[in-house]
Amino acid sequence: MEQKIKALILKNSKALFGSDIAESMIQFQPTRKDVEGDFTLVVFPFVKLLRCKPEEAGHKIGAFLVEQIDAIQSYDVLKGFLNIVLSDQYWLQILDTCSNSNYGINTPDSKPLVMVEYASPNTNKPLHLGHLRNIFLGDSVSSILEANGHKVIRTQIINDRGIHICKSMLAWERFSPINASGEKETPDNTGLKGDKLVGKYYVEFDKQMNTEAGVLLNEWDREIINESLESEVRKLQVAKKGKTTEQLKALDAKLKELAKANTPLLKEAKKMLIKWEARDPQVYLLWSTMNGWVYKGFEHTYHTMGVSFDKLYYESDTYNLGKDVVQEGLQKDVFYKKEDGSVWIDLTDDGLDEKIVLRSDGTAVYMTQDIGTAIDRFKDYPTIDGMVYTVGNEQDYHFKVLFLILKKLGYSWADNCHHLSYGMVDLPTGKMKSREGTVVDADDLMKDVIDGARDMTKERGHLEDMSEEDKEKLYHQIGMSGLKYYLLKVDPKKRMMFNPQESIDLNGNTGPFIQYTYARISSLLQKAGAFKMEVSQQLELIKSEKEVIKALSRFPSVIDEAARNYAPSALTSYCYELVKMYNQFYQNVKILPETNLEIRSNRLILSKNINQVIEKSLHLLGIHAPKRM
């Protein structure tokens, strides 16, 4: 209706205002809750043209609209705001439109192909709480883009190479105990998921490295310093004299990092990385074996999450392409080489800084891999119109640099790359750190919320006639809905605090609360039996009915907003408000006991349409809609 009014005003602007007007002058906003109206036209932009008071301008435009559009029942002017009231018949027609099974969902392929990257795990550790926000966000955005008419390729880049991978490999090789059969630890002989076993040795590497760093620091305190490091160590030690407590902490941290960088263990890991890039058979076999353990672990976790991917990319495949592109860029003077042999790009003229793209020993960095991966993807899918990277906001600068490098290399599609940046997830216990082993494991967290849903549901009862298998399925659906919804309801850009217990609450803005309303309406419709699915158009609507229909009418625009902003939170907010509005309607009117069959049918159709939109919304969030709870 707003578009119809806008078109009508533009077409008749000379008759109304004496001249053509810009489309931007026509501004709508929601009507204040204390004022009657379905939406509001802002009148102030037209006052100067009409040379009258705002109230007079509002009445002139309002009278014109009532005369031209049958669906406008009346209007009211409050200062510079024209509040427009639409007829009950208009809203009943909207209710009829909402009954369409495809309501709000655009046909796939009606818009350009988009690739969405999410998950992107490292094969040196299991998935954790931070990954959950990433994965649920990327998966939901993919579904929302599909609902908005895009064909979507879901993908991930598996970070399966690099110094961090070599750390876990070396730690397993050096520190794994030998069992009675003469075997080191494996997933088979320990019962540990492969990703958790490998993650255990990543943590072990850090512990051992810190121990070695402590030995070095003690030696430096006793003046036992390697000749090659003496100048740097002395400089930091001298700088500590006369400093404040905070300054001393900073200098001690620098000394500790210098010690870590020079531990025998880290040096050995760096040598292992060079051997891996040279395809050393022994190192390569160890790498492929341990990565194989991790992939099986990831598959199990993804299955529990209910997510999947259309295409997988591996850093071990794409980093070489990135290295080749860097060499080509050197010849084109996009990059330059320093005296130590490392390769850099100077982006200071673009307001950024200098960025390394190849180490002095010839090994690749993250940027090298990301350059290669981006190019590889557009080779695989030449018709991609956009590429969405779902990565935490600590990588904001990295992606600014990546997109700029791709543009300087001559790839025009770089303008269509988007970083879906999201805030970190905190816990009441504090920030997570992978190297210190203080992360919240994704498998453990999912088990906790599912167990919580089981306890809550058993306490409430009502499922005595359900099989144990169906009950377990329901517990999983409720627990995962709580987890997903809680992580998606916050705007992606914001940092958030996660509370597992709150996530499965049946009250408030939670996934189980939305599911419970869906189950309640499903039960209502089942009890209703057969009813006429044709909306009776000549009935009067009570206020709560009209408000629910108005909320239903917004569903397509909410999907469009969520897709444009890559923000599932727009959908969770809408769904919560819709459910609250319907629950209020449900409490205040008769539905099944209503004796007027036309009113009864209309209210059942309204309920059915609400359930349909709830189910679609939950699906776009990656959440199941159970018919019983």
Spell out the key features of this protein.
24 helices; Gyrase A, domain 2; 4 domains; single chain; Rec A Protein, domain 2; alpha/beta; 56% helix; globular; 4-stranded antiparallel β-sheet; 5-stranded parallel β-sheet; 629 residues
Structure commentary:
- This protein folds into four domains: 2-86, Gyrase A, domain 2; 157-309, no CATH class; 316-384 and 398-421, Rec A Protein, domain 2 (2-Layer Sandwich), CATH 3.30.250; 442-620, Orthogonal Bundle (Isoleucyl-tRNA Synthetase, Domain 1).
- It has 24 helices and 14 strands.
- It has helices at 2-11, 13-17, 44-50, 54-68, 88-98, 129-147, 163-175, 187-190, 194-221, 230-239, 245-261, 264-277, 281-305, 315-331, 366-380, 396-408, 442-460, 468-488, 500-503, 511-528, 543-553, 555-565, 568-588, 597-620, and strands spanning 28-29, 39-42, 72-78, 81-86, 111-117, 150-158, 311-314, 336-337, 343-346, 354-358, 384-392, 417-422, 425-426, 496-497.
- Helix 20 (511-528) runs antiparallel to helix 24.
Helices and strands in order, then pairings?
Layout: H1 2-11, H2 13-17, E1 28-29, E2 39-42, H3 44-50, H4 54-68, E3 72-78, E4 81-86, H5 88-98, E5 111-117, H6 129-147, E6 150-158, H7 163-175, H8 187-190, H9 194-221, H10 230-239, H11 245-261, H12 264-277, H13 281-305, E7 311-314, H14 315-331, E8 336-337, E9 343-346, E10 354-358, H15 366-380, E11 384-392, H16 396-408, E12 417-422, E13 425-426, H17 442-460, H18 468-488, E14 496-497, H19 500-503, H20 511-528, H21 543-553, H22 555-565, H23 568-588, H24 597-620
Parallel strand pairs: 5-6, 5-11, 6-7, 11-12, 13-14
Antiparallel strand pairs: 1-2, 2-4, 3-4, 8-9, 9-10
Helix pairs in contact: 5-21, 6-22, 7-9, 7-12, 9-11, 9-13, 10-11, 14-15, 17-18, 20-24, 21-23, 21-24, 22-23, 23-24
